[in-house]
Structures are given as C-alpha cells and as structure tokens.
Amino acid sequence: MDYQNRAGSKFGGGGVASSSATNADRRERLRKLALETIDLDKDPYFFKNHVGSFECRLCLTVHQNDGSYLAHTQGRKHQTNLMRRAAKEQREGKDKEGTQQGLLAGVQVKKNVIKIGRPGYRITKIRDPQTRQNGLLLQFQFPQITPGVVPRVRFMTAFEQKVEEPDPNFQYLIVAGEPYETVAVKLQAREVDRHEDKFFHWFDEDSKEFWVQLLFKTDRDERYSAVPGLAAGRK
C-alpha cells in the first residue's frame, strides 16, 4: 500500500492507514493468495447462482464476485467449517472404503442433477371479490420435469437471505423442480393468508404445469390478528 501520499504525512515517511484501507488491503492479499492455491473449478463448495452471485455451500454465504469468495475461503469461518467437516467425516468413517460402502448401503445418495434452465412462468394479479384481498396467481411450466417429481414451494424472508444487507421490505417465493433451476419471485414483505382457500399450490401431471395462488392479509388482519379478544377478519 502507498502510505507516503496520505494527508498529514511526510514524503517517504508513511501515514496511518484507516481501518477500511487496511481491510481492503487484507482482502486483496487473501484473494491473491487464494488464486495461487485454489482452483474454483475443483472447489466442491463453490456455486454460481442464477443471479450471477457466488455462494459457499459450506458456510451458506453469498458473495458478489470471485475475489470476495476467495477471500472468504481464507477466513476463519470457512477454515473452521472445513476442519469440522473433516472431523465429522473421519468420525463417521468415510475415509475408509469398506466403511463407506457399508454406510452407503442404507443411505440414499443425492445425485448431482444437471440443470436444464429455468421453467417458464406467468404471473397474474388477482383480488378476492368478497374480502378484497390482493394476491397473485403464478403458473410455472415444467415440460421436462423428472418423472415422479412434484415441484416444491416455500417462502424465504429477509432474515434467511445470506447477503450483506438484506432488504426487510421484500420476501421471496421459492419454487424448485428438478432438473430445472430453482427460481424465486420477489414479493412484498406482507403476511400471507394461510387458509386453504387463500393459499394453495397444485401440480397438473398431464400439462406439467405448477399453479400457486396466494392472497395477502388485509391491513386490518395484519394489524389486529395477534391482538387477543378481537374478532378475526372475514374468511
């Protein structure tokens, strides 16, 4: 780092580096060190998601570029998790071929599925004519889905997002169906009505279409649903 041109320092004497400059220099040194020792193509925990970010499957973290991921692999968290994983595998006897065969005999091994792309989708805004609740009707096409596989759906809140600054104003609806890539629909961070006639999903085996309907709770239900002694909103 160049310290001689810092404010208040003499030429050639060097100045006091700020904490941000020190951290930036440390990350750069770690990145260069990792580039010399790590091949990302052979890293089993390296994964590039559908939005272009890089994920560490061991630590469940998200990084904006490969340099950030490489610096992460040299950090204490990643190294600690590597030691824990190695100790666990050694404790379970996976380092011995005979023991490994015995373990695999009673365990269903998850195969690496080659992703074939994202499913087609269509999103329609809807409103309940009685309760006036706003919602969405989502339609996903899985024409080449694996036989016997039914798409799955779940919600991901801001607290589950492994990013540096998650936005609490939004949540995600996650839809997965092999061999397609997992997709996410960005929604407002509003409470979803969980009643059977309000939120449901259904997979059509013939047309290979996956339907999801969700309705958000009204402002009154969101405000008073947790207050004891008050009547619930219309269902």
TrEMBL record:
User: Keyword DNA repair on this protein?
Assistant: no
The source's superkingdom equals Eukaryota
Pfam families from the UniProt entry: SF3A2, zf-met
> What is the predominant subcellular site recorded for this chain?
nucleus
Q: Please name the GO terms that the record assigns under molecular function.
A: nucleic acid binding; zinc ion binding
PROSITE patterns on file: ZF_MATRIN (PS50171)
Q: Which family does it belong to?
A: Belongs to the SF3A2 family.
Q: Does the keyword Metal-binding apply?
A: yes
Keywords for the protein's UniProt record, in alphabetical order? Metal-binding, mRNA processing, mRNA splicing, Nucleus, Spliceosome, Zinc, Zinc-finger
Single GO BP term = spliceosomal complex assembly
Which intervals hold domain Matrin-type? 54-84
User: Which organism does this sequence originate in?
Assistant: Melanomma pulvis-pyrius CBS 109.77
Among Gene3D superfamilies, the record links this protein to: 2.60.40.2690
Q: What is this protein called?
A: Matrin-type domain-containing protein
What residue spans carry the region label Disordered?
1-25
User: SMART domains in the record, alphabetically?
Assistant: CactinC_cactus, ZnF_U1
- List the signal peptide residues: none
- Record-level GO cellular component terms: catalytic step 2 spliceosome; U2 snRNP; U2-type prespliceosome
| Subcellular localization(s) per the UniProt record | Nucleus
